[in-house]
Design a protein that fits this description.
This protein is mainly α. It contains two helices and no strands.
């Protein structure tokens, strides 16, 4: 059997997909942190402190993922992967 190279696809669509996913993941991480912090505040009666902690943790996780994916994309463009 011949070993075929996978198609790369349209570079614009690939970049659009990657950056769209990054934005979506960042938003989901922040919103999840807010909801979890709000839920914990309601259970423990510590409003608004755990909501703020959840916001910070969600934002940090979202931006960490953003930087991680953008570094991967940069390495891939430079042929280092």
């Amino acid at each position: 059997m011949k070993n075929k190279e996978p198609k790369q696809g349209d570079p614009f669509l690939v970049a659009f997909g990657i950056y769209g996913a990054v934005g979506f993941q960042l938003a989901i991480a922040v919103v999840a942190g807010l909801y979890i912090g709000d839920w914990a505040d309601q259970k423990l009666g510590t409003a608004p402190w755990l909501l703020l902690v959840g916001l910070i943790i969600g934002s940090t996780a979202g931006f960490y993922n953003l930087i991680r994916i953008l570094n991967w994309k940069q390495k891939r463009q430079n042929g280092e992967d």
